[in-house]
Design goal:
The complex is a heterodimer of chains A (256) and B (291). Chain A has 256 residues and is of the alpha/beta class. Chain A has a domain of 116 residues: Rossmann fold (3-Layer(aba) Sandwich). Chain A contains 9 helices and 9 strands. In chain A, the strands form 2 sheets. In chain A, strands 5-6-7-3-8-9 form a 6-stranded mixed beta sheet, sandwiched between helices. In chain A, α4 crosses α5. The longest helix of chain A is centred in the C-terminal third of the chain and has 16 residues. Chain A is globular and about 60 Å long. The relative contact order of chain A is 0.17. Helix content of chain B is 68%, strand content 1%. Chain B is elongated and about 80 Å long. Chain B starts with a helix and ends in a 9-residue tail after the last helix. The chains are: A alpha/beta (256), B mainly alpha (291). Chains A and B meet through β1, α3, β4, β5 and α4 of A and α2, β1, α4 and α7 of B. β4 of chain A pairs antiparallel with β1 of chain B, so a sheet runs across the interface.
Chain lengths: 256, 291
């Protein structure tokens, strides 16, 4: 509970209290995946062997404060994205609790908007979904287009965009509003060098606007450049939590 | 699972959270607050619905013309089978208008239910990306269906006129009947949306349920003529689809009369379905998006 002492004078924005998350995964195909086999299972009242439980987050606790940007690092499958989803309130905790200041916004790679619609419609819809009024959405429209750098592609359906372009648009929409807590899941991974630079700047701005930013990234460079603090997750629990540079150094020497 | 957090003994961190006014991240707002949140997103709901309608037939070469063609061809198929092959047209005044009204109105409810079932499960990526009251999705999908219905209604008006019905003041009664049906559809679609989010198999099952409902609703035959008086007939006559169809037939077709108490039934079905559906949908608000 050492981190609780540190909060004196600082305002906590996210408190994660002994969080456990267990996924129930259906469709892990074991045995014969045909109809007679499924029927036999129902008759014998067996639990579906396709149902597996995955303990993705095991007892994570930490407190984040206003103005911090926190990088989450760790190997694939170490629970980083799950932890973000739990902070965003999209995964109810199995045990423990997550407390947040305001409503966190999760910005992820899989977060498709509506792919049949043009970038233009997606911007307006995204703004309205975040709770902006139509007037505010119109007002910020130009900023978003400019920031996304999509230019003339903006009136094409989103399904025609490359994955990099889609992510740029998503980030541009979410970044237009200053969020109390912004969670970014690998969103900057595929942008080109120019966009990466601008989004790093925007993250710094968002942080200065008294919010807290969480960033999941495999690019340790991005973490050291944009984050003040880093948390190293290993198999669902915290291995190290501290200053970004120290944790990244420890992580990279451990994985080398 | 979510209630476990409320009854847990307070830990130092939970106390710190309470001290700074932090709230649990996956909590369901109380119903009045939830209603306000939904109302605040009304622009999102209508913009979402309008965009959705615009892209509905974007893959087809004829585009939006299908909005008119689909109900017309539906009516054509039922006319071929029930008007000509089975000749249920005997003893029914203006069978064409009778049939087309029934088909269009039933399709409205049927499509609302079907799209409601996929409102949550088909939009998980949107749900996982942005925070908004989830009821916005089934509500938007009902509005999409309503927009389709308004196109169908124009087609319906033309067909009924072509069959020789006069325009009367009674035609205005279509408006309240359709409003009530929309409210009923919304409630039903909200309820199905929650079930569909938890059990994806519902989408496989729904076509059979709605088809049974179709045959129970006197869309292409007259219930009093075909079913003996008794509990079954009462049940079929009181079912909401029959009630709304009969009300619109009563309004459009000069010599057709709606059964007794139809308006009372129409209002009751709408209010009950909407209140129960909304309340039921709200009950799992924090769980949508888990997949």
């Amino acid at each position: 509970m050492a981190d609780i002492q540190h909060t004196n004078g600082q305002v906590p924005t996210v408190i994660v209290d002994d969080l456990h998350i267990v996924y129930r995964v259906y469709g892990a195909t074991v045995g014969k995946g045909n109809a007679p086999a499924a029927f036999k299972r129902i008759l014998k009242r067996q639990k579906s062997p396709a149902l597996r439980e995955v303990h993705a987050v095991r007892g994570v606790s930490f407190t984040s404060h206003r103005g911090e940007s926190i990088g989450l690092i760790g190997r694939n499958g170490s629970g980083k994205s799950t932890l973000l989803r739990a902070i965003a309130g999209l995964l109810p905790p199995t045990r423990g609790a997550v407390f947040t200041d305001g409503q966190p916004t999760l910005l992820g790679v899989n977060a498709a908007l509506m792919s049949d619609l043009t970038g233009e419609r997606n911007i307006i819809l995204g703004c309205l979904a975040m709770g902006l009024t139509p007037a505010q959405a119109k007002e910020r429209y130009d900023d978003i287009v400019e920031f996304s750098g999509l230019g003339e592609f903006i009136d094409l359906p989103m399904r025609t965009y490359s994955s990099g372009m889609q992510q740029r648009l998503r980030f541009a929409i979410a970044a237009v509003k200053s969020h109390d807590v912004l969670l970014i899941d690998e969103a900057l991974a595929t942008g080109d060098a120019d966009f990466r630079k601008r989004s790093e700047e925007r993250i710094r701005e968002l942080r200065d606007e008294a919010g807290t930013v969480f960033l999941v990234s495999h690019s340790l460079d991005v973490v050291t450049k944009t984050c003040t603090r880093a948390i190293w997750l290993d198999q669902g629990s915290i291995k190290m939590d501290g200053d970004a540079e120290t944790v990244v150094n420890a992580y990279s020497s451990a994985t080398r | 699972m979510s209630t476990a957090t409320a009854t847990r003994p307070a830990t130092p961190r939970a106390e710190l959270a309470a001290e700074h006014g932090l709230s649990p991240s996956s909590a369901r707002p109380p119903l009045p607050q939830y209603l306000r949140q939904v109302w605040a997103r009304r622009h999102f709901i209508t913009a979402f619905a309008t965009s959705r309608t615009a892209t509905l037939y974007s893959g087809a070469r004829l585009g939006q013309i299908w909005q008119v063609l689909t109900p017309l061809m539906n009516a054509g198929v039922y006319y071929l089978i029930f008007g000509i092959l089975f000749s249920s047209r005997r003893n029914i005044d203006n069978f064409t208008a009778f049939l087309v009204t029934g088909v269009f109105l039933f399709t409205f409810t049927q499509r609302s239910v079907t799209s409601g079932a996929r409102a949550i499960s088909g939009n998980l990526s949107l749900i996982r990306a942005l925070h908004f009251p989830r009821a916005a999705l089934p509500l938007a999908f009902t509005i999409v269906e309503l927009q389709q219905m308004l196109v169908s209604l124009a087609v319906l008006g033309v067909i009924v006129l072509l069959t020789g019905e006069p325009i009367t003041w009674a035609w205005l009664l279509v408006v309240p009947a359709l409003i009530l049906q929309t409210i009923f559809n919304t409630g039903l679609s909200l309820a199905i949306a929650r079930i569909g989010a938890r059990v994806p198999d519902v989408s496989q099952l729904l076509p059979f349920l709605t088809r049974t409902w179709l045959y129970m609703s006197g869309v292409f035959f007259s219930i009093p003529q075909r079913v003996h008086a008794g509990p079954l007939q009462d049940l079929m006559m009181a079912n909401p689809a029959t009630v709304y169809i009969e009300l619109v037939r009563d309004a459009l077709i000069d010599r057709h009369d709606a059964p007794q108490h139809a308006w009372i039934l129409a209002v009751s079905w709408a209010v009950v379905a909407f209140c129960v559906g909304f309340w039921y949908f709200w009950g799992a608000e924090e769980k949508y998006g888990r997949g």
